[in-house]
Prior knowledge:
Elements: E1 13-20, H1 24-35, E2 40-43, H2 52-55, H3 76-81, H4 91-104, E3 111-112, E4 117-123, E5 128-133, E6 138-146, E7 168-171, E8 186-190, H5 194-204, E9 209-214, E10 220-222, H6 230-238, H7 240-248, H8 268-281, H9 297-314, H10 318-324, E11 337-339, H11 342-345, E12 351-355, E13 361-365, E14 368-371, E15 375-377, E16 380-383, H12 392-395, E17 398-400, H13 407-410, E18 429-431, H14 444-465, E19 470-472, H15 474-489, H16 519-531, E20 537-539
Bound molecules: 3-acetylpyridine adenine dinucleotide (N01).
Amino acid sequence: MTHPAGSSPSETKDYDAIVIGAGFAGLYMLIRLRQLGLSVRVIEAGDGVGGTWYWNRYPGARCDVESMQYSYSFSEELQQSWQWSERYPRQEEILRYINHVADRFDLRRDICLNTRVTQARYDEAADDWHVQTDGKQTLKARFLISAAGCLSAAKVPDMAGLADFKGRWYHTGNWPHEAVDFTGQRVGVIGTGSSGIQLIPTIARQAKEVVVFQRTPNFSIPAWNGPLPEDDQRAWKAQYAQMRAKARNTRSGVLYDYSQRSAFEVDEAERQAEFERRWQRGGANFTHAFNDIFTNPAANESAAEFVRHKIRSTVTDPRKAALLAPTDHAIGTKRICVDTDYYATFNLPHVDLVDLRATPLQSLVAEGIQTTAQTYALDSIVFATGYDAVTGALDRIELRGRGGLALKDKWAQGPRTFLGLMAAGFPNFFIITGPGSPSVLTNVIVAIEQHVDWIARCLAHMQASGSTHIEPLASAENDWVAHVDQVASGTLFTQTDSWYMGANIPGKPKVLLPYVGGLQNYTAICEKVIADGYPGLQFDAPTHQPA
Ligand code: N01
């Protein structure tokens, strides 16, 4: 039975599987679990489906993967029938698409909205999971599957004086559902990552004054967004299956133009021409101009300098231009941003840029933001300050495995998983796009479908062999963690303080959270595990005594 917004079942209920989250991952997992004949409950904190795209409704929110690729591939009818309107999809359009999927596949009856999982505890005797929600329900299930998302635990920094601020404040990842009108307002924006870079030009079109508080500048490539021509859409659809298969066989799950050349196989003029060609095409394709941009500091610097030059030639005020041009990290080692008019926005007379490195933010005060230099009077403040990424959503649940071990404690020195899918000591528990899988370095829908399909195939194998218990061996987990670390150490990613490294969260261990070995290589490893009969996984519970 569907539980409408605000209501929830009160009795303790048993299911075969409980899925945490009704975003792209949770919905597809539900479809696959139903196909296996399993009873499923999806628990969703929001009062609608959509996950990240339900919460991120800030002005200008848009995906930086192109519409034709940022969608499910599991249903030919679905991908043929859905019409995208723009090259890069707006948040509203993605949310409409997700809702369409929920209706089309009749998913809502197994989704409990407005309910947050607060605790999940593995019961060794029963070999099942007991799940507690904020609605004080207790649900039991053999399998627990996290579809809680990689960028869902919004992080408002601990800032002195937040409670004193007399205006209104917002976080991009938890935007109000009612319209927010900044007309005539003085708005402060803290944060210049992907969210801030999308939001700042949009707010600047409305507000009387915008003050951007920047700690670290980011590299951004223009989107050159526009309507998606009908012909392009038709061409994609004519060969959708082949295009999807090709995308799955790339390192990021996106059909970029991946160069096979080193930046120094060509001369300076050709290198610049290649960067220019990609700049004119727009989007994250830029960082694939040469095959050594993520591994060779000199190759990376040539790409970075090209972008810095673009910034300097766009932003007319030399002070702002210098502040906006990143020099502290290799391009692409923080998530590359894709924008519409970001740099040009700083040419508007009512848009100011404050360098928090030179004049650190001291506190919020009743009238606005106080730095070491001055107080900025503001009506509203927007925190575009990001997420406790990849592990944050799970850390916020009290999730306990064998012997009462908390997942948070197990991961205290950095996440440990087998394939990013499972954790030793946490039987019958799967994580979709977990740490140690390609996740946030990919078109996440491609990564989600790969994980969900793998989990469904694994469960089908268990059904066929009559087993009800699965758990990775500690040795297999150790080997995987060592491989993830070894691949990471050959890249420039580990040299940058980014959310990929957990560096944005005080106290979080600095570990490259996603697997950087490429989606296609990762998928091949997962396929081999299936083909070889699931080595590294133990089926059936030695501690479980059937009644
Ligand atoms: O968050 P971020 P985001 N004082 O962590 C600053 C995806 N996404 O929400 O770098 C002052 O990238 C922080 O500064 P610093 C995408 O994967 C995709 O923008 O820590 N500043 C930084 O500038 C993306 O990467 C899309 O020095 C503080 C900013 O806040 C990911 O989500 C759109 C601060 C946070 O940047 C996260 O992006 C949006 C403090 N105390 C998001 N704390 C698209 O598809 C933090 N900052 C287009």
